[in-house]
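Design request, tokens follow.
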């Protein structure tokens, strides 16, 4: 994990150093290669290796019966099946949003790297703030 975290950091720093952005303007053009769920995607910059991105300030329900899904069910007074269904709905919502907007450009406003080596940030489809859109329409909650 340490190697993945350092290679992601190096990739993002190279992008910034090459004039692709500044610390004040951290919107990086990306290509989404996979959508894991409503708040985690995989993307790449140019032809580099894909990396995971965790969308900040939102929390979507899980899409499989993992420990965290059971915790979400308990904390939100839902059945595990309702949690999984809501998670799959959020994933489908994000996929549809991406499919309908990807031709306008996809950008990451980079905010940091988490303890798991994932990039943290705000996803944009052109000027649409995807994180806010998911909170307002995609079934995701505010991250606590």
């Amino acid at each position: 994990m340490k190697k993945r975290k350092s290679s992601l950091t190096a990739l993002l720093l190279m992008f910034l150093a090459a004039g692709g952005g500044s610390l004040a303007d951290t919107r990086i053009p990306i290509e989404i290669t996979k959508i894991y769920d409503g708040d985690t995607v995989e993307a790449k910059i140019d032809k580099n290796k894909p990396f995971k991105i965790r969308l900040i300030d939102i929390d979507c329900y899980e899409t499989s019966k993992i420990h965290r899904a059971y915790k979400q069910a308990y904390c939100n007074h839902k059945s595990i099946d309702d949690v999984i269904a809501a998670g799959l709905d959020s994933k489908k919502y994000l996929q549809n949003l991406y499919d309908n907007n990807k031709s306008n450009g996809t950008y990451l406003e980079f905010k940091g790297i988490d303890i798991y080596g994932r990039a943290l940030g705000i996803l944009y489809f052109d000027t649409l703030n995807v994180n806010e859109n998911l909170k307002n329409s995609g079934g995701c909650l505010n991250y606590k």
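Comment from the thread starter after seeing the answer: thanks! The first strand starts at residue 27 and ends at 29.
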